[in-house]
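WARN no homologs supplied; continuing
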Amino acid sequence: MVVASLAFGSRVVSWPDVVAGVLHPDPENIAQAAVHSRIPRTVLGLLVGAALGLAGAVMQGLTRNPLADPGILGVNAGASLFVVLGIAWLGLSSLEEYIWLAFAGAALAALLVYTIGSMGREGATPLKLALAGAATTAALGSMVSMVLLTRTDVLDTFRFWQVGSLGRADFAQIGEVVPFLLVGAVLAVASARGLDALALGDDLAVGLGQRTGLVRALGATAAVLLAGSATAIAGPIAFVGLVMPHLARTFTGPSHRWLLPYSAAFGAALLVGADVVGRIVTRPQDLEVGIMTALLGAPVFIAIIRRQKVREL
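OK structure emitted
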């Protein structure tokens, strides 16, 4: 997928030019310059896809819900609301200006969902978290629609971020979110054993010596950092966090020790591959990767569900 991402686009580049464009590009050679310009986009696709795949696996393990993805904690809705407010009230117009607003909105929305889901005698149960996430997402989505309906000028700026895209990637922006992605990945891997125990139910997990509250807090923090960072820099991209953990389970089984890295690898491959297909089918224009993941991910997910009859984790 990486090689294809460097070679294909509005201009198809030969293998020698791909190698030269990566190692020592000649500014006078158009093909090599094209390869060099695609490197940030490819790196961003790998990072965002891996983060979303990893976040999806963690969220499904936390909630024991096979339909969980970054949207279940309100990440996409929170980021979208803060971006809309930043464009409408602060006059922001570029990714560099609202990336931190998007990240803050994603984190605060997820914190709100966890707080609501933790209320009551039983604490943060999978069902309560799922219901709180659905309700919060609906409420925040309504607020986004309210702003867009009253400020149509905001829509022109917002829609380029909302659709999900890798086309405006650069290493300065990538460097801003990499620390959050690394911390989120470390926390996700650290929660693997606890997620295996949660799959047996809270009572058995406690009996095995797991502190279920700590495991959920650790996993939720990892998911927020991963999905929030990915959403902030690339926009809300669907189906990667939903589909890839299911595909990974066909190779690894339920053990999160293997499921998490496989989900990250498959997520990176899917997102970069979807970006390549989006560049080819509408050449010389680009079809945004958020559209392509939905078109490619939905049939794959339906096939997995029909074959395995996935109902619960």
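DSSP finds 14 helices and no strands in the chain.
OK
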